[in-house]
Amino acid sequence: MKTVITELNWKQGNEILSEMGEVIYDPELWRKKELPDIIHDAEALIVRNQTKVSRTLLDSAPKLRVIGRLGVGLDNIDLQATKDKGISVVYARNANAISVVEYVFAVMLTFARHPVEATTDVKRGNWNRKLFTGSELYGKTLGLIGIGEIGTRLAARAKAFGMHLLGYDPFLPPYEIAIADFGVEQANLEGVIRRADFISLHVPLNKATRHLINKQTLELVKSTAYIINSARGGVIDEQALYEALSNKKIAGAALDVLEQEPPTNSPLLKLDNVILTPHIAGLTEEAQVKTSVLVAREVIKVFQGQQSSCVVIL
Ligand SMILES: NC(=O)C1=CN([C@@H]2O[C@H](COP(=O)(O)OP(=O)(O)OC[C@H]3O[C@@H](n4cnc5c(N)ncnc54)[C@H](O)[C@@H]3O)[C@@H](O)[C@H]2O)C=CC1
Ligand SMILES: O=C(O)CCC(=O)C(=O)O
Asked: Which domain of life is it from (predicted)?
């Protein structure tokens, strides 16, 4: 099996793939013009979220049988083209979910307690205890939009903090049991947005979710509420979010993902009530070791004609 890996991967996965044959690993390959030539005889292609796996790119890899996605979001892969060409796609189901959940807690607690601003203030020689009076997560309402692998794990941990859980997910049945266990009150999108103190997005980016959070929905958000987007940039209309944040119609936002990554000239960069991180919610050592090993094993399974529980079904 000849494998080409176009983005950053952990060595544990690369070693497993090497046992199967030649591996070309170049973390910068996704942005190089030679990519189509390099994959011309590849049987397996491993990508993260920056490689644009278009129909045209796939045309240059006639031997390709399987694509491994080192993560969860599949919005950079033309899944209709892979289906048409009989190429299987496997992804790292659930491998980074706990890391994303812990990221959401990091930003919720930052909004509630301001540890970084307080540190900066103390280092300036101040001791402003009253100014940094915080608020508790206990008793607050967390609104989950998308209650899948990440949403259910976030619910479990938020429950332990004593938060009230509201959730919107129109494709709920597979998660019914988990939701009952974690006590998520189901609501429609508007209900979640109107009532939540923290709104956390955990949906894939597709036609239905593009700009799910827009000018109209933002008008429903409480002025004291925070929005957390660790899903995909396109799920929020950033211009509308900018206006809501700059006019203080909502309290703040934490954005791990943006419509354009990295951002160029985004007005969001200038706002004080925004936490911005470079798409790192799922990026922990633990999640990435798990991801690299899982994807390597599942790619090999597919290549050998075995069933994979991480294969994308269209
Ligand atoms: N920032 C980061 O590092 C990471 C970002 N992600 C993003 O988070 C997304 C969610 O990840 P998982 O929870 O693992 O995926 P998942 O597939 O387990 O869950 C997604 C949930 O969204 C629901 N959903 C789909 N369309 C919806 C809609 N229109 N409205 C409401 N709910 C809808 C589905 O029914 C499903 O329950 C990924 O697609 C990916 O884009 C995932 C991992 C890391
Ligand atoms: O692909 C990555 O490196 C980031 C993780 C992510 O966004 C995902 O798993 O969907």
From this structure: Bacteria
